[in-house]
């Protein structure tokens, strides 16, 4: 009799849950997670997460593997469409960025449980999902952000609602569709990853305020991060940076020059980690400049040309002219009547420390170089121009004491020593990658565990077998 009642109760619960899911199932979706209306998208993700919460960790791993495999087949399409739609960056670098996001974004292996045992019993610490996460992606790295956030958030057991930048909506929608196609192939929940076809400020606001969104993750400029942090929910903010590259008199100058040019030019300086200004000790400044000339660069030596460039890429208010963000060096110089080789990767010029190119995060292949008397002045200026973003800093030196001093003074999330800036996100170096670097809120390089709640389960006076 007890067994029969138990079976009846189970059937009733299942029927009630199916009815609840049908009630909340939104209308007007396409079959791969793209909706016309943000409310419908959130409702669909909420239903999907309820189902996903019943899945085993191994099934989550199977879904993540399928997503990686499906995305890998479409790297070329993401890179081409990304350049075409946004008008920013370089195709060959976007290929590398997508491969990095697909291959080095941690999955379920990132979720490590902890345990304490002793005379008082056993206490277990587990990482559990938040539920439905609302994620804002920028136009500078639209699909790279969607890919690494999807892998981390799904590995953690969440569903995710993306609000991409309108400037990258086509490639963002493509990424969401391909992710859902992969999930479908391994019989995962429908609408585990969703977005809207036409993202707007209004649709983003709906997502931020929706009662069924449990966490917000905003990747972009200081404006959108501030909005996200004001929404009243748990929020992770990945904001702007202005990474200085400091070079002291002990550095391998030829290597430093190549590393700086490679890092600064990567995807035309779109990544927030990229070298935005160089601060070099005077004793080796001439040697560094001479070495940089040999690595597909163009040096501006006359002040008139520099002023014309400044007027072009900065507005009257001193902010960046977005029309030139992520553009090729030859295209930028052509607009001021200077023809340079298409192979030029970086435009550079020596300037004073108050120059706008030093103080503003340009996100263009334009690199100001500032001479200083000694390492003390270099460190002081590096901290100053980083603006307290605590994002990224780079240093070229063989002096461990100097490296330590700058790292302690600048307090950045990423500190790269004797390498291009992109080593800081795992390209050509050890460590996982991410395109959501949470400096403002302190989580650092996000991964699956970032998107979990730490829960404590206590068994008093039991199961301690030491």
Task: Please sum up the structure shown.
By secondary structure, the protein is an alpha/beta fold. It has helices spanning about 1-25, 40-50, 55-70, 75-85, 90-105, 140-155, 170-185, 200-210, 220-230, 255-265, 280-290, 305-315, 330-335, 355-360, 375-385, 400-410, and strands spanning about 35, 115-120, 120-130, 130-135, 160-165, 195, 215-220, 235-240, 245, 275-280, 295-300, 345-350, 365-370, 390-395, 415, 435-440, 445, 450-460.
Considering the chains and any ligands shown, give keywords for the structure:
seven-stranded parallel sheet; Aldehyde Dehydrogenase, Chain A, domain 1; alpha/beta; globular; 2 domains; 18 strands; 42% helix; 16 helices; 466 residues; six-stranded parallel sheet; Aldehyde Dehydrogenase, Chain A, domain 2
């Amino acid at each position: 009799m007890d067994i029969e009642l138990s079976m009846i109760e189970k059937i009733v619960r299942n029927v009630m849950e199916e009815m609840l899911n049908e009630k909340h199932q939104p209308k007007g979706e396409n079959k791969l997670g793209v909706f016309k209306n943000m409310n419908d998208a959130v409702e669909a993700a909420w239903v999907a997460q309820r189902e996903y919460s019943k899945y085993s960790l191994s099934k989550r791993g199977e879904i993540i593997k399928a997503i990686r495999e499906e995305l890998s087949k479409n790297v070329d399409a993401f890179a081409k469409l990304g350049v075409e739609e946004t008008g920013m960056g370089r195709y060959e670098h976007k290929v590398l960025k997508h491969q990095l996001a697909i291959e080095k974004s941690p999955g379920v292996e990132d979720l490590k449980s902890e345990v304490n045992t002793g005379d008082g019993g056993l206490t277990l610490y587990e990482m559990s999902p938040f539920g439905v996460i609302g994620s804002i992606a920028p136009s500078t790295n639209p699909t790279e952000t969607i890919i690494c956030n999807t892998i981390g958030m799904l590995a953690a057991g969440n569903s995710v609602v993306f609000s991409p930048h309108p400037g990258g909506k086509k490639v963002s929608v493509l990424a969401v569709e391909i992710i859902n196609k992969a999930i479908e192939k391994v019989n995962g929940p429908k609408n585990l990853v969703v977005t809207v076809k036409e993202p707007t400020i209004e649709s983003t606001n709906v997502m931020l305020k929706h009662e069924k969104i449990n966490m917000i993750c905003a990747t972009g400029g200081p404006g959108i991060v501030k909005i996200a942090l004001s929404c009243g929910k748990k929020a992770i903010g990945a904001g702007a940076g202005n990474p200085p590259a400091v070079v002291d008199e002990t550095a391998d100058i030829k290597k430093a020059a190549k590393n700086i040019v490679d890092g600064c030019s990567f995807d035309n300086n779109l990544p927030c980690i990229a070298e935005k200004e160089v601060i070099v000790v005077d004793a080796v400044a001439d040697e560094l400049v001479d070495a940089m000339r040999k690595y597909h660069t163009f040096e501006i030596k006359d002040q008139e040309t520099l002023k014309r460039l400044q007027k072009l890429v900065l507005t009257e208010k001193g902010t960046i002219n977005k029309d030139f963000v992520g553009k090729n060096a030859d295209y930028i110089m052509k607009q001021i009547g200077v023809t340079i080789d298409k192979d030029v990767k970086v435009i550079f010029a020596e300037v004073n420390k108050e120059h706008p190119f030093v103080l503003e995060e340009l996100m263009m292949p334009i690199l100001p170089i500032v001479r200083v008397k000694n390492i003390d002045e270099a460190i002081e200026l590096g901290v100053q121009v980083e603006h307290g973003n605590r994002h990224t800093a780079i240093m070229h030196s063989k002096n461990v004491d100097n490296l330590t001093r700058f790292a302690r003074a600048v307090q950045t999330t990423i500190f790269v020593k004797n390498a291009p800036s992109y080593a800081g996100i795992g390209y050509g170096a050890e460590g996982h990658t991410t395109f959501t670097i949470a400096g403002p809120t302190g989580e650092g390089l996000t991964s699956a565990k970032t998107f979990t709640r730490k829960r404590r389960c206590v068994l008093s006076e039991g199961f301690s077998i030491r």
